[in-house]
Amino acid sequence: MDKPYLRILSNPPLENPIFVQGLPGFGNVGRIAAHLLVKFFDAKPFAELYSPTFPDYISIDTKGIADLPKYDFYYAPMEKNNLVIMSGEIQPSFDDVLAHYTVCEEVLNFVETLNCKFVVTMGGVPITEDKTEIFVAATSNRLATEFMEKGAVIYSKGKIVGGTGLTLALAKERNLDGVCLLGTTIGFTADREAGFLVFKFLMKALGKEIKEGLKDDYH
Length: 219
Description:
The protein has 219 residues and is of the alpha/beta class. It has a single domain (5-206), classed as 3-Layer(aba) Sandwich (Rossmann fold). It has helices at residues 29-41, 97-113, 141-149, 162-173, 192-205; strands at 5-8, 18-22, 44-50, 59-60, 66-67, 71-76, 83-88, 118-126, 134-138, 153-154, 177-185. The strands form 2 sheets. A 9-stranded mixed beta sheet has the order 1-3-6-7-2-8-11-9-10, sandwiched between helices. It has a two-stranded antiparallel sheet with strand order 4-5. 41% of the residues are buried. The model has no long low-confidence stretch (mean pLDDT 91).
């Protein structure tokens, strides 16, 4: 393998799909939020992305079976829009800038073939005080304002590292609409609270209210 490789497992019917990406990073917030989406919708895997720029270790499941690191794409039906949810346990090394561009471009190439016109990336933003907020960055002033009115805080004059930010900015270059939702987190360990809040905020933005009492059901 000398370049990213996409394996198609099935071809689900997709109507007005929205692409949602949650990768590991600060507090593992994006990955946790994506996992909650998959669990809530009982989403089904339909594609996998492999890359030689992913870390050189493998995962072993409970049965002792070896698997290469990969990104998984899931399909979840909704009334108005289908969701294409992508997550994984890894990202390319943060020192390998070219690898991040290559992988993010491959991801966007694929979701464009699925006719995804809207992109949502999810992640965490480190803070030094225990303050719960959802920040938003967007591909346009209109979307930034729209999500601010939904309760998010504009993420101004900051940086978003890795695929969480790069996928959004590259989507903008392709004239795709999109937002990045960042949950505040104070640590580098898995922050389930922040992941749940990002999941809950996105669900509300999609027109589905999640009750606070259901939090434990999705952990």
